[in-house]
Amino acid sequence: MAITLPPDYKPTDMEEFMNPLQTEYFRKRLLDWREQLLKESNGTISTLREHTSSAADIADRASVESDRALELRTRDRARKLINKINDALRRVEDGSYGYCEKTSAPIGVRRLEARPIATLSIEAQEMHERTERQYRGD
């Protein structure tokens, strides 16, 4: 059964967490985000193909190589983000989206609005970061 979102719908803490409207809202948001990233990635590929010529000047070549390296790093970040979005979409499908993978507690609407791919509640994320800092020696 397809859910149709009202055009002005925004999830709130006042409604049941991950009700069908909220679930559809975040699913659509994740799909739109992934589509945007894929379009940008395709643009990067086109740009890299267009600028394959070698510049005669060493400074120009260095500039082109630097730009290319930045584009590739950006594309790699986007690829990793797309994988996280795909994981979030799988969680939407299996019903676990929006719930902390450590505690199973609701992550919360505001956190999901800020970071739709979040897998940890704020408390679990803070604990994870404290543990990381201890092991890194910060």
Itemize the secondary structure elements and their pairings.
Elements: H1 20-50, H2 58-94, H3 109-114, H4 122-136
Please explain how this structure is put together.
There is one protein chain. With 138 residues, this protein is mainly α. The chain contains 4 helices and no strands. The model has no long low-confidence stretch (mean pLDDT 88). 64% of the residues lie in helices and 0% in strands.
Q: Rg from C-alpha positions?
A: 20 Å
Which series of helices and strands comes N to C? Answer: HHHH
- Dominant shape: flat
Counting DSSP H or I runs of 4 or more residues, the number of helices is 4
Major sheet characteristics:
none
| Global structural class | mainly alpha
Q: CATH H level of the largest domain: which superfamily? A: DksA, coiled-coil domain
Distance between the termini: 50 Å
**Average pLDDT over all residues:** 88
CATH class designation of the largest domain = Mainly Alpha
- State the domain count: 2
Oligomer: single chain
Q: Provide the CATH architecture of the largest domain.
A: Up-down Bundle
Instruction: Count the E strands.
Output: 0
Low-confidence segments, given as residue ranges, are none
**Beta-strand share of residues:** under 5%
CATH topology category name of the largest domain = Four Helix Bundle (Hemerythrin (Met), subunit A)
DSSP helix fraction: 55-70%
